[in-house]
Amino acid sequence: MNRRENLVLLWVGIASLACAGAAEPTRENLDFFENRIRPVLIERCYECHSAEAKSLKAALRLDSRDGWMKGGDSGTALVPGSPEQSLLIKAIRYTDEDLRMPPRKNGGKLTEQQIADFEAWVKMGAPDPRRGDAAVLTSSPITEEAKRFWSLVPPRRPAVPAVKASKWVTTPIDAFVLAKLEEKGLSHAPRADRRTLVRRAYFDLLGLPPTPEQVEAFVNDASPEAWPKLIDSLLASKHYGERWGRHWLDVARYADSGGYETDIYYRNAWRYRDYVVNSFNDDKPYDRFVQEQIAGDELWPDNLDLDGSYQLPEAKKRHFEARVATGFYTLGPQVHESNMDAPKLAYERLTDWVDTTASAFMGLTFGCARCHDHKFDPFTQRDYFALQAVFAGSREVEAPIIPAMGIADFKQHYPRVIAASEARKAYRLFEAHTRDRELTPEEKQKKQRLLEGIANAVLSMPESTAHDGPFDGLMEIPTVSVLGHERPELVPVIHILNRGEIKRARDPVGADLPAVLKENSRWEGALPGPFGSRKQLALWLTKTNHPLTARVMVNRVWHWHFERGIVATLNDFGKMGELPSHPELLDWLAVEFMTQGWSLKTLHRLILRSSAYQMDSRFAHEANLRADPENRLLWRANRRRLEAETIWDNLHAVAGTLNLALGGRPVAPPLTGDEMPSGNWIVSADPKDHTRRGLYILTRRNFRFPLFDVFDLPVNSVSAAARDVTTVAPQALWFMNNKVAGQQAREFAARLVGKPGQGWNEPDFGPGQTGWEGKASGVHAGWAKRVDNGHSTPSFDDPIGTVITHGMSSVLWKAPPDYSGGPVKITGGVWNIRQLGRGGSWKLWKNDRDLLTEAGIDDASGTSSRPFGFARGRAGAEALEAIPCAPGDSFRLEILQGDFVGVNFTITSATQTNDLAAAFSLAANPTPAGWQYCESLAHGGGVIGKALRVERTIALDPVAWIDRAWRWALGRAPTPTEKSESLEMIDAFTKTADVTKETGSMPDALKRLPKEQAAALTKFCLSLLNLNEFSYID
Predict the structure, then answer these.
(1) Distance of alpha carbon 78 from its chain centroid, rounded?
(2) What is the pLDDT of residues 52-102, one digit of tens each?
(3) CA distance 946 to 269
(4) Are 985 and 7 in contact (CB under 8 A)?
(5) Which helix (H) or strand (E) is 960 found in, with range?
(6) What is the chain's alpha carbon radius of gyration, rounded to the nearest angstrom?
(7) Distance CA 780, CA 1005 (A)
(8) How many other C-beta atoms are found inside a 10 Å radius of the C-beta of residue 300?
(9) DSSP codes joined into one string, 19-68
(10) Strand, coil or helix: 937
(11) Are 35 and 107 in contact (CB under 8 A)?
């Protein structure tokens, strides 16, 4: 970011620049149209409002974008972005007696969910790909040219190009990027500074900010291996899987509920989420990752081998992971309406599975072929429904989970566990087929037998098969929703459907792969039918000569690192998608990805070590901007806004409240009154869960967590590989007014002030690191600074953990955890400002509890009335000797009620001597807000900032607070101007503070400040969190 000369709240200014007019529709929005809008138009509207209508009603056509834009007899049908002004929305709501569509004679009013979908569609700008004549034309034969479209041909490794500026090339990636730049006569940006790079790497790989210590460690590491070592350490962190798993969850349209009217809660969807996180952490090969999600149950079937040779832990883990992975299909949007017939439900489910498979793994808009042959890509309706037939024999099942069971008991009783689960399945199946009608006598008897079967199966299991405690009656077995096989007699026959309407079936079709892709990938042989075809689909997708799988994934990884894919349309590699900016690079990466064992971490290392990744984003080059304003050729890094969850994480990390526990059930933080959903939002009982990472916050399809909604969480009803980035006023308003932001600003302020004697023990986010090691407070030795004429310089080298509080109200030494020096000897002195004639006193504490000695300061001599060891260089005073000292013990020299000049404090052990010295003075006249200027005597004068007159044991130095605040929040120190304006801001906030309006919980550290000053510091922290630089990464 550019170094600001004025500290301003840029969110407000930026928010006011939100673009007017409709943006180009995203692939996600077009998928919404294809899946939620077009089928309803075809089924309920085309009969009267299309080119094929026998009699066009009201001169309105709804079979093309041009048709509804032109409108009919009543005017324009839709106003994109405004449901309330759209006649079509008014008509389907049935609020006007004279304007109701569809009419009652044609089936009547749409369902509430369908109406809500149309409203959402119009609100997002009414994206509609049906442009011009192509919207209504019939299909033409697939040409050879269409078959040879670039993305449908298997990738081949191209030669790495030769370039002129070869010194810039560190990996083959750079050669491909530089070749394009040289071809166009463009320059590349220089390398970003080290502070920018370390911050970029942390957010890219972990989604978490680096601590100031981690920033300084990298900045000061001049070794050529510093950057590779940093990358490796971040990739080894458990938090890497959380960050990159979140990307995949967008692709998988993950949510914890089903959506539609009921929005039923998926109580075990989180197990799929944790599977994804663990897979990324384990660097599971991507081909295996794909195979498990599509056909984990068919590729790794349940074979427990109960003859005594079975080794439970590892084998069961692999089997269980492969089954959980198929939750990719079961966690999508689902209709749970009792009035919807079973065939319709099955069709909706198959549609979701096919569309998601094509988008997630092949980057194709395959859903366009459901109602008609694809208008632009070589895919037919037969291709579409043949892929549906691959899934026809699959259904959602509940797989039992057996934790912590003895192997012997497990081997003996697992068949009974399975029997109980199967008994439940049989009963649910019976209910599904007899719902909404009266049972025959035979069916009543069968129902009774099924219920008895469940009871007998559960009661036959011993206590050792109960979970989480002793058996107590009918205990529910924990399960996870996965894919399994349907009963053969219930497998539906798949037909090609006219216009995609289930009641207009045409020819039956068997399981098969899309014909053009099958031909181009040289796949031979027929699929086995409804059972086993998913296995063949998974193996086909992960063949090294499949045209799309590797290309699509490396392109996504590139986008998630650079903010723009080599193919900008991540889920559309078809003709309507964008052409690749670097086609040779894309193919080289795809082949290299497969050659390296489909390893994502290897791909990360390759990308992050490139010069292309390390470029500066602030490079302003007029010729480049004119030639490539969108930076398609990558002549500089792209500045990126953090995603919604990462903004949440960053906010809590800076405040010191982030709970970095891994995995488990979703959590529900408290909501404010105006944020409450219409349904249930049960707040998590444990307050620690309220500050978990955003990844773990409950995701309901019908209610989006407010912050995430404001910051562009994608619609999770369809696969989304890229997120929109909008700039709107509610984003700034959330940061300024939301109670969560306000409370975290208080916690941040408390962190700056700290507690006496409590050091700042930061995490390293390295291997095995699972959370903050306690809330940060106090001042770490690395932050002890002496400020002279506005410049911050180190005051001393400190290898053992010494802490000096800014403002010099006290001086503290703390024995490090590995201290072994035994008892200590303490000497030192304190002397006063003789000219001011003010007295004072000091105390020497051990562990802030035990008073070792104290004395007043002699006004006449200007020295301590009881020096310990020496004062002003005069020897002969009494020393404190043989003071017991253990690891973690602290000794604090506390100054009370004095305007003092100097402190000298020495602690000597058997192994080392620690000298701590400081000197400064206070001005006689405080500012109107109560702050006083400090003047450094040690450096010959000069204003060094503002500090509070100290009359308590606490660091009260706004200069230090400001420096730490900028480093924690933004990863850098403030400029002199920013520091000066920050001081003026705090002073102004103090004078204008209205403490009667303060709400929320006040941290203990802030309670030791006067209320006006606590409020001022909190407001300053909130202002800092509102800066663009907090939510954007260079």
Answers:
(1) 35
(2) 777 778 778 888 888 878 777 777 888 888 888 888 888 888 888 778 888
(3) 53
(4) yes
(5) helix 958-970
(6) 34
(7) 16
(8) 19
(9) PPSPPPPPHHHHHHIIIIIHHHHHHHTTTTSSTT-SS-GGG---SSHHHH
(10) coil
(11) no
Q: Which tokens sit at 761? A: 């023990």
* Nearest by Cα to 828 from 878, 788, 793: 878
CB neighbour burial string for 411-436, b if at least 16 within 10 angstroms, e if fewer: bebbebbebbbebbebbeebeeeeee
Query: Is residue 1018 within 8 Å of 745, Cβ to Cβ?
Result: yes
The two structure tokens encoding residue 437: 């009608």
**Structure tokens, 255:** 């949510």
* CB distance 894 to 910 below 8 Å: no
Location of structure tokens 């859903």 = 367
Name which of 388, 356, 385, 375 is nearest 146 in CA terms: 375
Name the least confident of 225-239, 673-687, 953-967: 953-967
Per-residue tokens: 151: 């993305």
**Which residue is it, tokens 């109560």?**
930
Which amino acid is present at 454? I
Q: In terms of DSSP H, where are the helices of 702-850?
A: 706-710, 729-737, 739-753
Please, what sign has the CA dihedral across residues 29, 30, 36, 37?
positive
383 to 373, 386, 514, 719, 888: CA distances (angstroms): 9, 5, 5, 20, 70
- What SS3 class is residue 231? helix
Place of tokens 């970029």: 200
Q: Is 922 helix (H, G, I), strand (E, B) or coil?
A: strand
- Residue in the block written with tokens 């390759």: 606
Q: Residue 9: beta bridge partners?
A: none
Mutual angle of helices 549-562 and 600-608, in 10-degree steps: 40
Question: How many residues comprise the chain?
Answer: 1034
Peptide bond just before 102 cis, omega within 30 deg: yes
Q: How many CB atoms lie within 10 A of CB 676?
A: 12
Sign of the alpha-carbon torsion through 1008, 1009, 1011, 1014: negative
What is the residue extent of each domain of the chain?
27-137, 756-958
pLDDT in tens, 259-301: 887 888 898 999 999 999 999 999 999 999 999 999 999 998 8
Are residues 830 and 893 in contact, defined by beta-carbon separation less than 8 angstroms? Answer: yes
Q: How far apart are CA 101 and CA 99, in angstroms?
A: 7
Q: For strands 479-485 and 394-400, give the pairing.
A: antiparallel
Q: Which residues contact 218 (CB under 8 A, 6 or more apart)?
A: 194, 197, 198, 210, 226, 230
The pTM assigned to this predicted structure is 0.71
